[in-house]
Amino acid sequence: METTRQAKISRLIQKELSEILRQQTAKTHGILVSVSAVRTSPDLSIAKAYLSIFPSDKSQEIIENITRNAKTIRYELAQKVRFQLRKTPELSFFLDDSLDYIDNIDKLLNN
Q: Looking at the 3D structure of the chain, how many domains does it have?
C-alpha cells in the first residue's frame, strides 16, 4: 500500500523526469520517451521509473543508454527538486511494454 507521501513524491519525480527526458530526446528526432509511472520505496530512497518508448524497436537501446546516464539524470532531478526533497532517491529505469501488449491484443482480436 502506497502512502500519501509516496504518491506525492512519485508524481513529482514523474513530472520532473519526463521534462528532463523530453529535453534530452529533443535532439534525437523521431524518438519519444515518456514516463508512464514512478514507484518509490517506503523509505523514499529508491525510485523505479517505467518508461514508454516510441518507436518500440529502439526501446532496448534507449533504456540501456538512459541507464548508463542515470547518475547525470539523478543530478539534474536533484537540481529541480532541491526545495521539495532533502535527498533525491536512487533511480532505476524499466521498460513499460503495456502499449505493446495492448497493440498485440488488438491484432489478435482483429484476426
A: 1
3-class SS string, the chain: CCCHHHHHHHHHHHHHHHHHHHHHHCCCCCCEEEEEEEEECCCCCEEEEEEEEECHHHHHHHHHHHHHCHHHHHHHHHHHCCCCCCCCCEEEEEECCHHHHHHHHHHHHHC
> Is the Cα torsion angle 82, 84, 90, 95 positive or negative in sign?
negative
Residue 50 structural domain: 4-110
Residue whose C-alpha cell is 514508454:
52
Its pTM stands at: 0.84
Q: What is the pLDDT of residue 111?
A: 82
